Amino acid sequence: MIGAQGPASITCSRAGCTETAEWNVNWRNPRIHPADRVKVWLACGEHVGYLRDYLASRDFPVVVTPLGESVARVPDGVTS
Ligand SMILES: [Zn+2]
Description:
alpha+beta, three-stranded antiparallel β-sheet, 19% strand, binds zinc ion
């Protein structure tokens, strides 16, 4: 469970990356997820752009927020 083990355990979601995450990458697959479903990846400063672009290139709505700052939903058409 995220948050239960302290900040030291929060690492980037990029495969192979062991950097401490600094960002939440909030996203949703509109084909299978309802509008109020939010998936969250964690990203370090180096990979936040990579992960955002990975999702955006698949036409998934994605919103990047500072680590720990969640969003209630990811609106359609948001790729910033
Ligand atoms: Zn990373």
